Structure formats: structure tokens, C-alpha cells
Amino acid sequence: MKWITRERPKIDRLACPWLIRRFIDANAEILYVPENQVLDKAREFNAIPFDIPGVEYSHYQDRCTFDYFLEKHQLQQDAALQTLALIVRGADTDDHTLAAQSAGLWAISHGMAFNITNDQELLEKAMVVYDGLYTWAKHLQKQKHTTHPTEQLFLQAYHRFLEEQKDVPQKVPTWALHLKEMIQDQIDTNLTLNLKEISEALAVHPAYVSRAFSKYFDNLSFGEYIRKLRIEKALALLHTSGCSLVEVAYLTGFSDQSHFTRVFKQQMGQSPSAYLKTLRKK
């Protein structure tokens, strides 16, 4: 079976071939061609096009092509693939709040693509990366690189608090109050929270947290709320720290300065550099 997509892959166009070869067709041939040639070459080589607009295997709603492969080939029952799908989607859509590993996958993929100009060679290297990610997702998610006794004490105290508060009536649920504390605690550490991790810590299903989140957090989704806090932290740094824009982007958890600039402009109506110039004139 032959599959064809745009040249110079970064995320989806490496993750999907890995998924094809590991779970759909071990002998699949992956073709990379210029974007304007994909459909013509697909007909010429009798290949299935993917990750381009207007074909079956592509992005839909807020999901990426990797998600579609999982659904189309009924692979959703594999929990490790579902974890991997969140990481891939976060990296591919530039929403690194979906999974803590998304920013790392984007950085590694971007760096590999810069260093390796041959797409087939790049794919072979990426196969090793995704094999490692899948193994981690399947067997190693609970393992930590270091042990933090204070974190364990905090969790123990928190769970005792939950037990004590079970019968106390309140308008805002305990999980929402504690989640605000957790997010606040993360503001100075690049806001690495994601729904999967906080749901485990709160003992609340991630689908419910996602659905009910806006009710208790300024009518914002989880991602919107995190981005709002990031920009608030960025404003504080711009006013007080003397950091460069690159440093501010890093300190507020953005994958790169362009992502930081885009989100800042959406929320503030002007770019960080324009805001900084105005600030210096005052």
C-alpha cells in the first residue's frame, strides 16, 4: 500500500506514517512530494493522500490527521495510542496545554527537520522517536525521573482535605477550587499542566473537567484560561523584569516567540514588541 503527502514533514506527516507502519501496514510505502503535486502523484502511483486539505485522511474540527487514522482504523481502544494522539495533536496544532510532552515533541521534530533535509531519512529517524514515545505511553507514564517528598506530602494533605470536605455544601466544587490553586502554583513553572494530569490528581474524569471548566473559570476553556494566565505573567515580566521578548516567551511557557507573539496580539490587540515600545515611552 502506498501513502502520499506533502514534503518536509514535521509532526502529523511523521506520526501518521509511524502509525501506518506499526499498526496498519508494516510494508507501507510513504511518498513525500511538493504540495501542488500530491493529488496528481496519488493518481499516478495509486497512493492514498493524507494530511492535505480536501482528502479523507486530514484534519477535522480540532483534531489532526493522526486522530482520524485512529478512528478510521479502529485503534482507539489502545490507551497508549490515545495518549500519543493528545501529544501529537498538541504539537501539530500548537496547543501545548493538551499534553506536557507536546512542546518537547514539537521542538525535537522541528530540530530534526532542520538538520535532516532528506524526507525519507527524516522519517526513519522519527520512527525511533515515536517508538520511544509509544513505549513510554504504554509502560512508563507513572515513572518519575526524581522523587519529590514535599510533593507527596502535599498530595497526602490534599486528599485528607478532600475527605473532610465531602459533606460540606458549597456552590463551587472542591475540585474547581483546588484546580485554581494548582494552576496558580504552576504559573512560575511554565504552566505545564494538562487535563490528563490534573484529572488524575483531582480524581475527576477529564471529560467532565473539560466540559465543566468554563463554568468556574471566567467562561473560558482550559486552554483559553491557561493562555490568559500566561499573558498576565508576560505583562508582569515586561513591566518589571527587563527580560527580552525571547526570554519572556520562554518563561511563560510558549514554544517559541512567534507563538507568544500571536497569542499576545490576540489578547492585547498589539504585538509584544509594540507594547514594549509604548511601555518604554511612559
TrEMBL record:
Database matches in Pfam families: ChrB_C (PF09828), HTH_18 (PF12833)
Entry keyword set: DNA-binding, Transcription, Transcription regulation
InterPro entries: ChrB_C, Homeodomain-like_sf, HTH_AraC, HTH_AraC-typ_CS, Tscrpt_reg_AraC-type_HTH
The keyword Signal appears for this protein: no
Organism field: Rufibacter immobilis
Stated name of the protein: Helix-turn-helix domain-containing protein
Keyword Nuclease tagged: no
One Gene Ontology molecular-function label: sequence-specific DNA binding
Ranges of residues in domain HTH araC/xylS-type: 177-278
